[in-house]
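Sample entry (59 residues):
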Amino acid sequence: MGNRFTVADAYLFTVLGWMKGFGIDLSRWPKIAAYMRRIEVRPSVAAALEREAAVPSVA
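Predicted structure, serialized as tokens:
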């Protein structure tokens, strides 16, 4: 979709975020790691991550 942020970006960010739980280090792929950093600093994403972190864990 070019430089536009789309629902596909949001979903990919979410799925790639699950990789930590599987022990997959995304830093092995610099372009993916850079993509994740670009997405996580978006104000809406940063706010959502902050709210998510405030929710008590179920584990």
